[in-house]
């Protein structure tokens, strides 16, 4: 499956980045969506969760908004020509090194066979802040189902969402877990959600009301 | 901080009091001015004789067939129309900068009233750096007034391009149907290229007979249509001004030939030409001379203030002809300039503008009504200024940040060519002292 471009980086830090696109599609970008962007000149790929999609206003847009019956041309001009780009914030929740780097690591380990995506399943993915952010105007792609399965095979990224201060962590994690479950084969979805629930129970054992809230959001 | 505000307080208070007093005095003149306007009514032979007696130095408004006191209600707006706006901005040459150049940026918008799609916007810049652009034949660096003239011409040229594209597009769609096998062309709205010349004469006649109607188009400029450069700087730079004026009027030809309409919108105008007419009308014919004409009965009052008193929202005044000497050049090319005042405001908010139109618009009731209706509608959303001109300005303006980015690009380009570029020491000291100081508020 080819990567779907969903915008470009506007500004970035180790904690995450801000992306922009001209106009949103119905399914892109959405809250809790997994996305990825290259870093370290393509040597790594940062995984992130979209958590804040915003459209800014300005004085002229406010003026048009207060008028009774603005014309279709006025509205289209503001939406499509002026209030662009649509921006969204991304929380960095992990990264993986590029295949080339992984191949050299595998060869050093004594095997010459490149694992398939299925075998890859989680290997090489690091659930930690990335070593470097992406650069301005680097493309941002929606994660494919294969990417999502590889990244969410382990639940270590849960802490990154739960502990993030400026992010609606619980809502974001719930949306991400639902997204990850959707990427699983039909017959595995229920098991995945149950495993995710067990992990949440372990992490939030001392905050039962928060746990209950989250479990309600991810239950099938 | 260099203004000592504590010392300015008393002066500013005195100014406020003086302006309030003056506003009271001016408002007392208004009933008299309105009465004189109504007394004139339709210009008669005596008034026309007075205008003739006043001669070339008189700059008053010349009446037309419409009674000078007439007001006209808002006509209906056509269900579909293309409203075109253009504005220009410039970066003047800076002899203290790292390189000598100037830039003209033109923003434009094609707004399709009654259509669903978003307006088509465009910004286009031109950088001038050749000696022929920077220096005149007998003088040093090109005066800023000439750059302004080139900018105004560029705005009009862009409007002409848009007007031509508006009226070519339906024809191209029809060509696709009428001439099987003939390529309908690659007309993208706003970027059409004319190719009617490729048709045979027979096909041309068929095309003309079945030319589909396109929505009417109105091109708007922010300011009067008479080139300011020609009004203000002609005596100083005559050959260059004449050339710029020639090209400028060429664009009016293009718009007229495209079947478009054009108007110049002057917001908060300071003219007093109608008041000059009222003053002239009050003088006995035998007493008209340079001294009596200079006696300013309504000094300080403007036509705008008078028509704020006269016009209700949506109404326009009578059309007048401009007596400016530059109008002779426009008249010679078939674009003699007329104007009227228009209340673009709403109940509770007066917003009277001066609208300039060429003769072929002023004397065409349909085009005049279209200009009237379209401008009022365009002013509805921004509450008193045409939408397309708001946007055209936004698309044209060069911000300080963009100016700095441009300077950095220029420096980079010069360095890549092995040229050391540096700003002048004066510019350098301005940068040193331009930063925020500790004691600044």
Describe the 3D structure:
The complex is a heterodimer of chains A (220) and B (441). The radius of gyration of chain A is 20 Å and the shape is globular. With 220 residues, chain A is an alpha+beta fold. The two termini of chain A are 27 Å apart. Chain A is built from nine helices and seven strands; from the N terminus they run ββββααβααββααααα. Chain A has one domain (4-218). In chain A, strands 1-2-5-4-3-7 form a six-stranded antiparallel β-barrel. With 441 residues, chain B is α+β, with helices and mostly antiparallel strands. Chain B has a domain at 79-215 and 217-259 and 386-418. Chain B has helices at residues 5-40, 45-54, 131-134, 144-178, 201-209, 228-232, 238-257, 273-282, 290-294, 303-310, 327-332, 359-362, 365-378, 387-396, 400-416, 425-434, and strands at 62-63, 71-72, 81-91, 102-113, 120-128, 217-222, 261-266, 316-317, 320-321, 337-343, 352-358. In chain B, a hairpin with an 8-residue loop joins strand 10 and strand 11. The radius of gyration of chain B is 25 Å and the shape is globular. Chain A binds chain B through residues 60, 63-64, 67, 70-74, 76-77, 79-82, and chain B through 109, 111-119, 121, 380-383, 387, 390-391, 394.
Helical fraction of chain A equals: 25-40%
Count of β-strands of chain B: 11
User: What share of residues are in beta strands of chain B?
Assistant: 5-15%
Q: Which strand order spans the largest sheet of chain B, edge to edge or round the barrel? A: 1-9-10-11-7-6-3-4-5
Indicate the mean pLDDT of chain B. Answer: 86
Described by the principal axes of the CA atoms, the overall outline of chain A is: globular
Q: Which shape of chain B, going by the Cα principal axes? A: globular
How many domains of chain A? 1
User: Tally the helices of chain B: what do you get?
Assistant: 16
From N to C, what is the helix and strand string of chain B?
HHEEEEEHHHEHHEHHHEEHEEHHHHH
**Uncertain ranges of chain B:** 171-211
What is the strand content of chain A? 15-25%
